[in-house]
Design brief:
- The chain has about 300 residues and is mostly helical.
- Among the domains are: about 90 residues, no CATH class; about 45 residues, no CATH class.
- Helices cover about 50% and strands about 0% of the residues.
- It is built from 9 helices and 2 strands.
- It has a two-stranded antiparallel ribbon with strand order 1-2.
- Helix 5 packs parallel to helix 9 and helix 6 packs across helix 7.
- The longest helix has about 60 residues.
- One of its GO terms (molecular function) is nucleic acid binding.
- InterPro entries: DUF4187 (IPR025239), G_patch_dom (IPR000467), GPATCH11 (IPR039249).
- This is G-patch domain-containing protein.
């Protein structure tokens, strides 16, 4: 009875079968596996894969030390090499020389030529950038200078008119009379003083006014002479009329070197001369727009526009 009980299955036992036993491969799985392996063996590797394989093989060979089984080591041993460094010095090379693979079609010095061209291109770009910055700065500076020059020129003509008003008033800052009121004017140019006798600091203003008056008279005379015949010449006509009608030659104005020299100065320099003379002669500050009682002008902030805020 005991043997029969032992042979019976114990359904309450916790023991299980061997779970680590490999599963048997089915025929379908085996067929799929064989097809994959055949396809992998028949696949032609790409150039990139071949290059990677060659690189890995080369690096592995270079990283391997020479031993007695290596053909190169056997050849070197026959020539007397006993191992160690390659050469007489103790610090000679012990590792194989690294190989630098060239994968392009350029010559041996192609890399140096490329580097040289890259350096030249970089230097040219840097030079263009610097020139561009210089050009921009020059343009800004030139624009500022032109703006300041136009501003100074406008202030110069305004100061000239102020100086003229004081000179033609006939009384200076000390209450003394002067004779600059007899300046040439459009209303009485026939009895006026010569232009070169006008104060040089506002002589350009008087000259400009006389030129405009002369041009106006010539236009008027031309309009009046349109009804006359071209070949007619009046012996009693004025020289200006003869010039307009083409029967006379205009006389050149007398040269004025002092005026030419003054007009050759920059507007800012002419303005400075005019303002200094206004302060000295009439105790007048152009920036304050005020005429002081004495030469001290103690309430005036200064000589320049910046000092007046």
């Amino acid at each position: 009875m005991a043997s029969e009980d032992e042979n019976e299955d114990d359904y309450l036992s916790m023991a299980f079968g061997d779970a680590t036993a490999p599963a048997k491969e089915t025929s379908l799985q085996r067929t799929t596996r064989l097809k994959k392996e055949a396809a992998e063996r028949g696949r032609v590797p790409s150039k990139k894969e071949l290059a990677q394989q060659a690189k890995a093989t080369r690096e592995a060979a270079l990283a391997t030390q020479l031993d007695s089984s290596n053909k190169g080591a056997k050849m070197m041993a026959k020539m007397g090499f006993k191992g160690g460094a390659l050469g007489k010095a103790d610090n000679a090379r012990t590792q194989p020389i690294e190989i630098l693979m060239k994968d392009d079609k350029g010559g041996i010095g192609m890399d140096s030529e490329k580097k040289r061209k890259i350096r030249e291109a970089a230097a040219e770009l840097e030079g263009q950038h610097k020139r561009r910055k210089v050009d921009e700065e020059e343009y800004r500076q030139r624009t500022r200078d032109e703006r300041e020059e136009r501003k100074a020129e406008g202030q110069m003509w305004s100061a000239m008119r102020t100086f003229e008003s004081f000179d033609t008033d006939g009384v200076d800052a000390n209450g003394e009379e002067h004779h600059d009121a007899d300046i040439a004017t459009p209303q009485d140019s026939s009895e006026a003083r010569p232009l070169h006798s006008v104060n040089i600091l506002w002589r350009p203003l008087a000259k400009q006014r006389l030129d405009k008056e002369r041009e106006r008279r010539m236009r008027y005379d031309l309009d009046q002479s349109l009804t006359q015949r071209a070949e007619y010449e009046d012996p009693d006509a004025d020289p200006d009329d003869k010039i307009v009608l083409g029967t006379g030659v205009e006389e050149l104005d007398e040269e004025d070197p002092e005026l030419v020299e003054f007009e050759s100065l920059k507007p800012a320099e002419r303005l400075k001369k005019i303002l200094e003379e206004l302060r000295q002669k009439y105790h007048y500050c152009f920036w304050c727009k005020f005429r002081y009682h004495d030469e001290t002008m103690e309430d005036c902030p200064g000589l320049t526009e910046d000092e007046h805020g």
